[in-house]
Write a structure and sequence with these properties.
alpha+beta; nine-stranded mixed sheet; four-stranded antiparallel sheet; 12 helices; 29% helix; globular
């Protein structure tokens, strides 16, 4: 059978679960092996912190797009988003790339605010729907809460932005896009003369278009209005909608200002340059080559176009495969130089860590973790995250139903857990 181009995901040293038992006691050996195999499998819990408030008594009911942020609807919403809005399928390959499992230990610890915690203690206190830790193609821990399963397609929110950036790199390699110095209007004529149309792809990639746009997640900001408009088929499509935000308040590439409209513009450029739907391009160029085990779903707007800035649904293990792809420099699927450029920020620049934001820096649609070596993250509101440490090939995938869309204090503990995992499982990395 032909191997996937991302065959690096499976190494010849893949670990299998084992137990040391006395050969002279076959019954004991069989029992021990069954127990060890169980500990290797994903762990599922029907409950979680504040489970009743999250709808446990109603078996986590699915609501509507209008009440999707109600606490008792969030669990189902974040694992069935393609039942609330139409979506395109991202097709997987005929056969997935296997991920091995290492059963040796699951007692990982970290320090937060001067106290020592285990991963299980973290899960007991935070509304995490799924947590997966993988190192160099071997799963070390896989946990699910609130009745979620490893077959659920959990919502990415803005984590998908990094996938869009990687597709831009692939399109450049293929000659579909000439350069990131090109303007968006060079590919999308409907945006000609507008602020976003006259913005370079580099500025869009680095969230530095300098166009006024509010994204505070209070339901009253520009982001909410943009979302509502895109879902309406009786209004113009995304390209025209973007021209409504036409006030430039800073020169491009001088100030970081996060806005999903910038990713949406990149998505329109990709579709125009490649002549493909984003879901199809993602399937052909990343999802299949990396060996995804399941299809993903990508919600579409009122004009049947993917929302480039949001809302992919995928299994945790496939998010991990994407993280591993980036940890391995693109794995021959994405140009390595592009991956490095996308996951770094020049020291002292406006997008460096602790400059772009009080903590993170920003690359190409990717958050840069402040550390002594290159580490980065894909982040989405309400607690979605994929952390990657290329040096140790360590990836952590975290999905959640935090009530606060952003600036939740829980984010501090998640990053503390990540650094603790890096110290235990990889090469030491001080902040």
């Amino acid at each position: 059978m032909r191997r996937s181009p991302a065959v690096w995901i499976v190494t010849s040293l893949a670990l299998s679960c084992w137990v040391a038992v006395a050969v002279q006691d076959p019954a004991r050996a069989e029992t021990a092996n069954e127990a060890r195999a169980s500990s290797c499998a994903p762990s599922f819990s029907k409950t979680g912190p504040d489970a009743e408030a999250y709808g446990a008594g109603q078996n986590y009911p699915l609501g509507t797009i209008a009440d999707r942020t109600r606490q008792d609807r969030m669990v189902a919403t974040f694992s069935n988003f393609d039942r609330l809005l139409p979506a395109h399928v991202v097709l997987p390959p005929a056969a997935p790339s296997p991920l091995a499992r290492n059963c040796d230990r699951t007692d990982f610890t970290y320090t937060f605010d001067g106290e020592r915690f285990t991963v299980d203690q973290y899960l007991a206190r935070h509304p995490t729907t799924g947590l997966l830790i993988v190192r160099d193609s071997t799963i070390l821990l896989e946990r699910y809460q609130y009745g979620r399963r490893d077959t659920d397609r959990l919502l990415s929110n803005s984590m998908v932005k990094t996938m869009v950036a990687m597709l831009v790199g692939i399109a450049i390699k293929e000659g579909k896009i000439k350069s990131i110095e090109d303007l968006a209007q060079d590919y999308v004529p409907e945006m000609k003369g507008s602020a976003y149309g006259q913005t370079s792809l580099r500025a869009l990639l680095t969230m530095s278009a300098g166009v006024e746009f509010s994204e505070s997640y209070d339901g009253k900001d520009d982001a909410a209005a943009f979302n509502r408009s895109l879902r309406r088929s009786d209004l113009p499509g995304a390209a025209v909608q973007l021209t409504h935000y036409n006030k430039r308040i800073a020169p491009p590439e001088t100030k970081f200002a996060y806005a999903g409209t910038q990713t949406e513009a990149l998505g329109l450029v990709l579709m125009a340059a490649t002549g493909r739907r984003l879901s199809d391009y993602l399937s052909e160029k990343i999802w299949k080559p990396m060996g995804a085990e399941d299809e993903a779903s990508w919600t579409v707007d009122g004009h049947n176009q993917e929302q480039a800035y949001c809302c992919l649904g995928a299994r945790l293990r496939d998010y991990a495969r994407f993280g591993l792809l980036l940890a391995n420099g693109g794995g021959g699927v994405i140009p390595e130089a592009w991956v490095i450029d996308a996951t770094t920020a020049p020291e002292g620049s406006f997008r460096a860590p602790r400059v772009a934001t009080p903590f993170y820096g920003y690359g190409y649609q990717t958050w840069i973790v402040p550390a002594k070596r290159r580490m980065f993250a894909m982040l989405g509101i309400n607690g979605q995250a994929i952390f990657v440490d290329p040096a140790s090939k360590l990836v952590m995938v975290h999905t959640a139903v935090r009530l606060k869309p952003s600036k939740d204090p829980a984010a501090r503990e998640l990053i503390a857990m990540w650094f603790g995992l890096v110290r235990e499982l990889g090469v030491s990395a001080a902040r």
